[in-house]
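INFO  loader      accepted 1 record
INFO  loader      residues=104
INFO  predictor   begin
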Amino acid sequence: RRSSDLKTAPELVDRVYNRPTLETLQKESIKGVTEPRLLKTLAKQRRQQYMMLKQRIEREQKMFVISQKIQTRKDLLDKTRKIKVKKETVNSPAIYKFDYKRKR
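INFO  predictor   done
INFO  writer      dumping tokens
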């Protein structure tokens, strides 16, 4: 992109965030880090934080599937008749259809 399209200074064009316009730059000075070396370290830290967040989300999804599988196994201990509707996969537990039993 060109600086004229974004209405900003040429040295700030490659920024994805905190990209002030020329009007803002005339009114006040640039805030934050401007050195390329420090910008690289900040970008690296940001990437690492996103990686950690991604890993946590994946772990939470795996734990949810495992808890569903454990609950399914507990439900299977019932004496009622059941029919397997869907097989167990890596991402989901097996699905069973239970016969309705009237409570007395």
